[in-house]
Write a structure and sequence with these properties.
The complex is a heterodimer of chains A (about 400) and B (about 300).
Chain A (H helix, E strand, L loop, with lengths): L10 E10 L3 H9 L4 H8 L2 E11 L4 E5 L6 H8 L7 E6 L2 E2 L5 H10 L1 E4 L11 H5 L1 H5 L4 H14 L15 H14 L4 E5 L7 H18 L2 E6 L2 H7 L2 E6 L2 E6 L1 H6 L4 H8 L3 H4 L2 H4 L6 E2 L4 H11 L3 E6 L2 E7 H6 L20 E2 L4 H10 L4 E4 L5 E5 L1 H8 L3 H8 L1
Parallel strand pairs in A: 3-8, 3-9, 6-7, 7-8, 11-12, 14-15
Antiparallel strand pairs in A: 1-2, 1-4, 4-5, 9-10, 12-13, 15-16
Helix pairs in contact in A: 7-8
Chain B lengths: L14 H46 L2 H16 L2 H16 L3 H31 L1 H16 L2 H12 L3 H25 L3 H9 L4 H30 L1 H5 L7 H10 L2 H30 L7
Helix pairs in contact in B: 1-4, 1-6, 2-3, 3-12, 4-5, 4-7, 4-9, 5-7, 6-7, 7-9, 8-9, 9-12, 11-12
Classes of the chains: A alpha/beta (about 400), B mainly alpha (about 300).
């Protein structure tokens, strides 16, 4: 996100290491000296959980940490609220150095600054749904009627009206995770940690929950750290994605970067199976070099067309895009008519596409039209075009072409 | 030990040496009990007066009031009319067959011992669950308590405190406490890590975790432990009667020495009846409180 440059990160992790074993400090030196995870395990019996992690997470974004099981993603997220103590490194959240907090301060920090949603929900089985949602407030010592009011509010927000006095075991998986989400939101913490929150759910319920999360996020603007092993999910909800492999951060960036410029084979293997038509927007693959014909008369249009060295152009006026005109049509016009205004009969009726549309949604229009489609931005101005070959190349997964497209 | 027969025979202290060791240990313990016996007895005085008070309460109340109280208690714990009726019939039969007083005495000592076992056992179990070190120390002690013949630890207890109710209660507790400790430990260790982690993540302190999450979630196991403790306490009744604990155990002991078959059988059956009632009551209570857990049944 380019507008992050003058923002201060809300969460910052610097040179974070986590080694599992009895003698972690000693082994840390060897890890820093550059020994591989396998070497360390063989020589010392210690497992390297995380190695030199650096992350900046900005307020209001959904930051997705992705990796296969065993890549250390769940370990990483537990460092944010120090459910796991790092071997070395700095964790700075909302201006406070988390590593320097003592037991009491840490409890206060966990109560007020962040809340967490768990893969297997982590609900208290002996408490009702309402009591579960109010748990965070209860821990803070807030009066019963206040926390019940608040819990009821969140219960309704996640769409579980009427389930207040049920017990978690009486609910389906999706409903239980809604309770988990409501519990996390009920404390009004700015930061939401979600550890594979939707991974245990059926695909259909999962996408429902993703929609709900996105919808809630539009209203609440929390900072969300989301762990997943599912790239489709990451692309769907993430503003930024970091990919973790064997405890090392392989790549981080915006979803499009990851999709179109995977840094290595590992990331590429991840990206391969993604349905690009559903993950990419028109904007990310369109070509900006186009011939825009803004002139009123045919004569000027011919000049503009020659300058651009293309054989077609998009005719625009103050109201926006009017249609496509080809060089052939212009050449067929008698020179004597050059002073005439460009007439609708000269234009070909080529539909436009919105720049934020998913590729999937433009495929039908693409197939119906021989000419590249003009891409309009939110203001209705022509920003670029999208031609069939580009679309085909992007969707057919040819990395070399992808790189060209990105340039 | 100077001869060379050690290859064929196990080297052994000779009789004088063994005698010396026994004398020294016995003597030391005897002087210890002479020295501190009174103090230790004084320490247990409040417990003794509570025991006597409770026994008198049961003995002096009219029989129908005791049965009514038991029936109400049974209904509250189990919410089952069948079980309640069973309690009424069983206690009426016990009284009808002339065992009312002994049964009340046994009930009082069992109740007090079980309560004490729970009060002591649950915290010990919690401590074991929290620290592997404590667990590694307590586990062998529990092993000894469960396998050492009861008569062996009755000796020092009787030497120290004489015969009577207090040594009886101590013997019953030593015999009956291991299950509640073990199962509390197990139950807390088996609490779902993620639920506990969730509590921590929301800023719960260790007391909030213990009483809000760990103990409630360990309840199925703790209840099983309490149930076992009650059963074992009841089975200790006969042995405890050897050191002067009055109750259903004494007639059983008498019938063993005099070969009174019917007397032994009737008193034995009374013990069984109490055991079954307590077992069903504690189990149905546990089941009822845990029905929300789902998946645990």
């Amino acid at each position: 996100m380019s507008d992050n440059e003058n923002k201060v990160p809300l969460m910052r992790i610097k040179n974070l290491y986590k080694i599992f074993g009895k003698n972690e400090k000693k082994v840390l030196e060897q890890v820093k000296a550059g020994k591989s995870k396998e070497q360390i395990l063989e020589e010392t019996g210690h497992t390297v959980g995380l190695s030199n992690i650096n992350l900046d997470i900005y307020p209001g974004e959904i930051f997705v940490i992705m990796g296969l099981s065993g890549s250390g993603k769940s370990t990483l997220i537990r460092h944010f609220n120090r459910l796991i103590e790092p071997t070395a490194g700095e964790i700075e959240i909302a201006g406070s150095d988390v590593m320097k907090l003592d037991e009491k301060e840490l409890q206060g920090f966990r109560r007020n600054k962040m809340s967490m949603v768990f893969q297997r929900f982590g609900l208290l089985p002996h408490r009702t749904v309402l009591q579960n949602i109010g748990y965070g407030l209860q821990v803070q010592g807030i009066a019963k009627d206040v926390r019940e009011d608040k819990a009821t509010e969140w219960l309704n927000t996640v769409g579980l009206n009427g389930y207040a006095n049920q017990y978690p075991a009486q609910l389906s998986g999706g409903q239980q995770q809604r309770v988990g989400l409501a519990r996390a939101l009920c404390t009004d913490a700015d930061i939401l940690l979600m550890d594979e929150a939707f991974s245990a759910l059926d695909p259909l319920i999962r996408s429902e929950m993703q929609d709900q999360l996105i919808e809630l996020q539009d209203k609440l603007h929390k900072t969300i750290v989301f762990i997943t092993h599912d790239l489709d999910e990451a692309l769907r909800i993430g503003d930024k994605i970091a990919i973790l492999r064997d405890g090392i951060l392989v790549q981080q960036g915006e979803p499009v970067d990851i999709l179109l410029n995977p840094v290595d084979d590992y990331v590429e293997a991840f990206v391969k199976d993604v349905n690009r038509a559903r993950a990419l927007t028109v904007e990310t693959v369109m070509q900006p070099q186009i011939c825009r014909i803004s002139s009123e008369t045919i004569g000027e249009a011919v000049l503009q067309m020659r300058k651009s060295k293309q054989d077609y152009g998009y005719v625009v006026n103050d109201d926006g895009y009017r249609g496509l005109i080809t060089q052939e049509t212009l050449e067929n016009v008698e020179k004597g008519e050059y002073d005439n205004v460009i007439d609708a009969s000269l234009l070909e009726d080529v539909p436009s596409v919105q720049s934020d549309a998913l590729l999937e949604s433009v495929i039908p229009d693409m197939i119906d039209n021989e000419h590249p489609l003009p891409v309009l931005n939110a203001e209705g101005e022509v920003e670029g075009h999208l031609c069939r070959t580009t679309l085909a190349e992007v969707l057919s997964d040819q990395p070399s072409v992808d790189n060209d497209v990105k340039k | 030990m100077s001869d060379k027969s050690w290859l064929s025979e196990i080297p052994q202290l000779d009789r004088h040496q063994l005698l010396d060791i026994r004398k020294t240990l016995d003597g030391a313990y005897r002087s210890f009990s002479r020295e501190y016996g009174d103090n230790i007895e004084a320490f247990f005085d409040p417990l003794l007066s509570f025991l006597i008070w409770f026994e008198k309460l049961l003995l002096n109340s009219p029989w129908w009031l005791v049965i009514a109280a038991l029936a109400i208690f049974a209904y509250l714990a189990s919410r089952s009319w069948k079980l309640t009726l069973g309690v009424v019939v069983a206690f009426f039969m016990i009284g009808f067959l002339g065992m009312w007083e002994n049964t009340m005495r046994t009930m009082s000592i069992i109740t007090v011992s079980t309560l004490l076992a729970i009060i002591l056992g649950v915290p010990i179990g919690v401590a074991m669950a929290r620290s592997n070190r404590v667990q590694s120390i307590v586990t062998p002690i529990l092993d000894i308590m469960q396998t050492m013949p009861a008569f062996v630890y009755l000796i020092p207890v009787v030497m120290l405190l004489g015969i009577g109710k207090i040594p009886g209660v101590i013997a019953v507790i030593i015999y009956a406490i291991p299950p509640v400790i073990r199962l509390t430990n197990l139950g807390i260790r088996l609490v779902d890590k993620e639920v506990l982690e969730a509590a921590t993540a929301y800023g719960a302190n260790s007391m909030q975790r213990l009483f809000g999450v760990q103990i409630p979630l360990a309840m199925p196991n703790i209840m099983a432990g309490i149930n076992q403790t009650i059963m074992m306490a009841l089975s200790m009744v006969v042995i405890a009667s050897m050191i002067g604990v009055k109750g259903l155990g004494q007639p059983v002991l008498k019938s063993i020495t005099n070969q009174y078959f019917t007397l032994g059988l009737l008193n034995g059956l009374a013990i069984v009846a109490i055991a079954i009632i307590f077992d069903r009551l504690s189990q149905s209570y546990a089941k009822r409180t845990l029905q929300n857990f789902g998946g645990n049944e």
